[in-house]
Design goal:
The protein has a single domain (12-195), classed as P-loop containing nucleotide triphosphate hydrolases (Rossmann fold, 3-Layer(aba) Sandwich), CATH 3.40.50.300. The protein contains 7 helices and 5 strands, in the order E-H-E-H-H-E-H-H-E-H-E-H. It has helices spanning 23-34, 42-49, 62-79, 91-105, 108-120, 148-169, 181-195, and strands at 12-16, 38-39, 85-88, 128-131, 173-175. Strands 2-3-1-4-5 form a 5-stranded parallel β-sheet, sandwiched between helices.
Length: 196
């Protein structure tokens, strides 16, 4: 089932949330239902190219890593702007990670406003931004940061950001806070249907 927007363009849907909230599972199901490409998360891709995992990026390369993820994500989204997409993570996630680590490593003074501006410039390009809060325990897959405190803290950063954007995003922002997967999927499809 392919759903087009009112302009006839395929929908652009993105998911944001802390680790282990079910973004990838929901993204794959949406791709199947909407008939659009899946844009996988870029942090693992960039880390693999560096011979690392997201959890093993050295602190001295952290800022470079965050910019590389954002650049790669924007590049992928622009390449699929006409075909539509479902993105498993998005620049919102990049900004949340940036802000989380900036607290500890003083990145904000150097690049914070520029990074946030780059992310906010992307917000208008999505038909639907799906926010998923934590409802599952963190699983250590050997790549992600498997720390419940990190999951909870990142979720707080995400919600603070989307709250500041709520007026700008309106009904393009949809929080999925149910555990049942079929209900999650149907609610997202209903929200998308109301948008497009």
């Amino acid at each position: 089932m392919s759903t087009g927007t009112k302009s006839g363009r395929a929908p652009r849907v993105t998911l944001t949330g802390a680790p282990c909230v079910g973004k990838s599972t929901l993204a794959r199901a949406l791709v199947e239902r909407l008939g659009v490409p899946l844009l996988p998360e870029r942090s693992r891709e960039v880390a693999r190219e560096w011979g690392l995992t997201p959890a093993t990026i050295p602190l001295e390369r952290g800022l470079e890593f965050q910019w590389a993820i954002l650049d790669r994500q924007v590049e992928a989204e622009e390449a699929h702007a006409d075909s539509g997409f479902v993105s498993d993570r998005c620049p919102v996630d990049s900004l949340c990670h940036f802000e989380w680590f900036a607290q500890e490593y003083a990145w904000w003074e150097k690049d914070g406003p520029r990074y946030r501006e780059a992310v906010e410039a992307r917000l208008h390009t999505y038909d639907l931004i799906i926010v998923i809060p934590p409802m599952f325990p963190v699983i250590d897959d050997g790549e992600r940061i498997a720390d419940p405190e990190f999951q909870s803290g990142l979720d707080g950063v995400i919600h603070n950001l989307v709250d500041t954007w709520r007026g700008r995003l309106g009904d393009r922002l949809h929080v999925v806070d149910v555990l049942d997967f079929d209900t999650r999927l149907e609610r997202v499809l209903a929200a998308l249907g109301a948008r497009v």
